[in-house]
């Protein structure tokens, strides 16, 4: 997991290609209002512009990805993420990834981090995270999630 702010990228020490993906995502968000998928490099790197509602953490599922890294960039509002280094217990006896997402009810020793506009958080494949948790009260947020295939890391 990595946490940063797009207004302080000079202090981020991220690889140049990650900085490029963030810049492209910001350009896409500035030039498009319609939610949905926008390609940066086909299935290797793409982003999803979304406007979800945050919810109480008890209503949100923990997730991990097998093939894609997430760069979650908050554009408007406040969002809290749960995360843990412990391996969560799957919802099913035979876990199956759907669209590169494996969902879990809960995870042990969960910690939380809250994001505000211009903050971003990076989760690598296999790192558990619980997105879209309400920081105080549920609210509408705007975010763009950059999906980077593990072969591009």
TrEMBL record:
A GO cellular component annotation here is: cytosol
Record-linked InterPro entries: NanQ/TabA/YiaL, NanQ/TabA/YiaL_sf
GO process terms (BP): single-species biofilm formation
Where in the sequence is the signal peptide annotated?
none
Superkingdom to which the source organism belongs: Bacteria
Q: What is this protein called?
A: YhcH/YjgK/YiaL family protein
